[in-house]
Amino acid sequence: MRKSRFTETQIVSIIRELDAGATASEVARRHGVHPNTVALWRSKYGGLEPGDLARLKQLEHENAEMERIIARQVLELRAMENLIRKNSWGAGVWVFTRYRSCVRKTRPLRGRQLTRL
User: Fold this and answer.
1) Is there a contact between 12 and 45 (Cβ–Cβ < 8 Å)?
2) Which of 83, 84, 97, 113 is most buried (most C-beta within 10 Å)?
């Protein structure tokens, strides 16, 4: 991803110029950007103070980390399901519970319905 010419603090100051009453085209011309870019900045950074920017960056970093963790867990789960399906470990449907235990639903055999591994 290309690095921006403006820091977040500079962007917030540009948004403050807009809030002071200048038009988007004037502000864009003064700073050498397109008016659509100013509108995008306003939608993302509108109403933020410079102190809020640090918190915003921290939250974005945490969200990215959580997305990576979830993606890794989904891949592990799919790999386990494929392995079970590939090895055909018994008839029935394998169900993964939220406590990482594996339960196999089988056809009723002598009064039993669930077999826990």
Assistant:
1) yes
2) 84
The DSSP annotation for 41-103 comes to HHHHHTT--HHHHHHHHHHHHHHHHHHHHHHHHHHHHHHHHHHHHHHT-SSSEEEE-TTS-EE
pTM passes above 0.70:
no
Domains of the chain by residue range: 1-48
User: Per residue of the chain (117 residues), what is the pLDDT tens digit?
Assistant: 567 788 888 888 899 888 888 888 999 999 999 999 999 999 988 887 777 888 888 999 999 999 999 999 999 999 888 888 777 655 455 555 555 555 555 554 444 444 444
Burial letters 27-50, b for 16+ CB under 10 A, else e: bbeebebeeebbeebbeebeebee
Task: Identify the helix (H) or strand (E) that includes residue 106.
Answer: strand 102-109
Give the closest residue to 52 by CA, choosing from 95, 110, 9, 6.
Answer: 9
